[in-house]
Write a structure and sequence with these properties.
By secondary structure, the protein is of the alpha/beta class. About 40% of the residues lie in helices and about 20% in strands. The protein has eleven helices and 15 strands. The strands form five sheets. It has a seven-stranded parallel sheet with strand order 1-4-5-6-8-10-11. Strands 2-3 form a two-stranded antiparallel sheet. Helix 4 links the parallel strand 4 and strand 5. Helix 1 packs parallel to helix 3, helix 5 runs antiparallel to helix 6 and helix 10 packs parallel to helix 11. The longest helix has 22 residues. The protein is globular, with a radius of gyration of 20 Å. The N and C termini lie far apart (about 40 Å).
Length: about 350
């Protein structure tokens, strides 16, 4: 996806454009298969352009170590997966210190819950497994734990973040007999985080210090009925305000949190972002230690399944010189948010 959006080619322009808009923190990703070309032999040439561009623009980067891609010779269900990811984590921590001069902020594995379902239960992502989701989740959690430990062994001041879907699921009003099953499904969203923090499955090695800040991903399709997965739209009486989901997650773990992904496609982009920021403001008023909102994606990209042109970013595909046209309604909404934040700071 980094190559498809030409971010690797135009990282300097991308980060400079973000800084011009007042966006000084970003999530970006490593491409593990292009770094560990053979087992335990690492070369970070593929990330140099991103590192250099972020430094030049003054952008702080939250780095995903594993965002679905991994080397072909790794069996993701084996103990070797966790060890290999830990090796990558340690090497990247050392590289980051050399290149940037400070410890990194890393997300060891993006969306453990989602990936274990889509790649381990329903076979839509590689390795296309069926009914092995729980096994895959345990393997991913173990990998995230070892990667966090390996990062801090090299860079004790590193920040370890997570990025998990935040959902709401309920039974249909005319099917109250499904209430318990729906609630069990809903609360399973916290299983990976409970494992990481050592609340369950202690044999995996989880502990509270495995995660310093928790990220939660939230989209318009993150609320649905059980078991048919029909989406509950914003404004529906059965739709739960996003602020309440943030309050629950914050209270459950009592650590700083951030919205690690949010966005939508088409002309609803600005309206959706306004909804999320308004709900975030209400969560802050309720005492949630909410530290930021990550607009995802920042640039339009080809669809995962059909390679369609997804109009879901702040900027579009680049021209030959790397210039990207901006989506003004969303840019205006971001500016409004900045003005509101500045006004709130003055008032306080």
């Amino acid at each position: 996806m980094i190559e498809a959006t030409c971010h690797d080619t135009f990282a300097d322009r991308d980060y400079a454009a973000m800084a011009d808009q007042g966006i000084l923190t970003a999530r970006d990703g490593l491409r593990w298969p292009r770094i560990e070309l053979s087992a335990r032999n690492y070369n970070f040439w593929s990330v140099n352009a991103q590192i250099d561009a972020a430094q030049e623009a003054g952008i702080e980067v939250v780095w995903d170590l594993f965002h679905y891609g991994y080397p072909d010779d790794v069996d993701i269900f084996s103990d070797d997966f966790a060890k290999r990811l830990a090796g990558l984590a340690a090497e990247f921590a050392a590289f980051h210190i050399r290149a940037v001069g400070r410890a990194p902020i890393v997300i060891p594995i993006n969306e453990i819950s989602f990936f274990s379902w889509i790649a381990g239960d329903v076979g839509m992502f590689y390795p296309f497994a069926l009914d092995r989701g729980r096994e895959l989740k345990r393997s991913l959690v173990r990998g995230a734990i070892l990667a966090a430990q390996a990062t801090k062994s090299i860079a004790p001041e590193a920040t370890i973040a997570s990025s998990e879907p935040l959902i709401f699921v309920r039974e249909r009003p005319d099917k109250p007999y499904l209430r318990d099953a729906a609630e069990s499904y809903r609360t399973s969203q916290f299983e990976a985080m409970d494992m990481l923090t050592g609340q369950i499955a202690p044999e995996l090695g989880g502990a509270p210090d495995c995660v310093d800040v928790m990220g939660f991903n939230y989209y318009p399709h993150n609320q649905w009925y059980y078991p048919d997965r029909q989406m509950i739209p914003v404004g529906d009486p059965d739709y739960k305000p996003f602020r309440e989901l943030l309050i629950e997650a914050s209270a459950r773990y009592n650590v700083p949190i951030f919205i690690s992904e949010t966005g939508t496609e088409g002309e609803q982009r600005a309206e959706w972002f306004r909804y999320v920021t308004n709900e975030a403001d209400e969560a802050l008023r309720a005492g949630v230690d909410l530290n930021g909102i990550c607009l995802y994606p920042i640039v339009n990209h080809p669809g995962w399944e059909d390679e369609r042109h997804c109009h879901n970013g702040l900027w579009d595909y680049p021209d030959e010189s790397g210039q990207r046209s901006i989506y003004e309604p969303l840019a205006n909404e971001l500016r409004r948010c900045d003005r509101d934040v500045a006004a709130a700071k003055r008032a306080n």
